[in-house]
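Lecture notes, unit on protein representations.

Consider one protein chain, 301 amino acids long.
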Amino acid sequence: MKISLIICTRNRIQLLKTCLQSIPQSSIDFHEVVVIDQSSDTANTEELLPIINNLRYIPTETQGLSWARNLGIKVSTGDIIAFTDDDCIMTDGWAEAIIKEFQRDPHIMAVYGRVLPFFNGLQPRKMLAIQLNNQHQEYKKLVNPWKFQSGNNMALRREVFAEIGYFDELLGPGAELRNCDDADMAYRLLRHGLRVVYTPKAIIYHRQWRGDGEAWRVEQDYHIGAGALFIKHLRYGDAYVFRLILERLIYRGIGNIILGILSCNKYKLRKGYYSLFVVKGMWQGLRKPLSSMDRIFITPN
């Protein structure tokens, strides 16, 4: 079983260097490590290539994380396509934990792992892209994808993309609809009835390098992307999405605002306020054309 690890990067050379240096800690070598570089200046990135022997470096002038992920899928050659981000640190045993899940059952199509925060001097109150669940779980029916997924720690069988399509290129950081290409992929996996596993043994650390101000801006993008995700699937006639919309608006949005006011808690108040940006994402997604298949937005030429 061959694993291709895809890392997409843009203008974050020091973070990427730390990420690449953490990869040899794994006791199982990857079949290949594919770096998709969307940086404005790729000269410095090329200096990092000797860090890993089997590294494939693909510079591109395009923008958008989902676009880069799709390019990585197409140029990679492994049976398992794994993803992490350039601001993450891998741990020893990660590859073994992922492979173990795929080997124990050929019907498991995707494996997600645990994401813990890593602090390097900066300790913002608002943490991003973490998954603290410590229970091994298997999903065979629709659930909220944020219960288990984080795009910086996921691995899928190659045949998944032939069955349900690639990442939606209008979603995700750098794309018009801001974020949630990873959550969209997780939801589409479940919607197609594919088996998904979450294992807390596959651990990756996510560097919390943003200050609170920038972290809240990214939080806003998360909710805009979630709104676009919701309205897209709703337009395909997916009634389950109503539950996700209500949870986002009432529990995370209005609920946190009320609790924040009653307890004079500015953090909860702010968290609730940003959750309401899901409405903006729904409005933006409502105006985008849909593909007749694969549950994705049509990307302009």
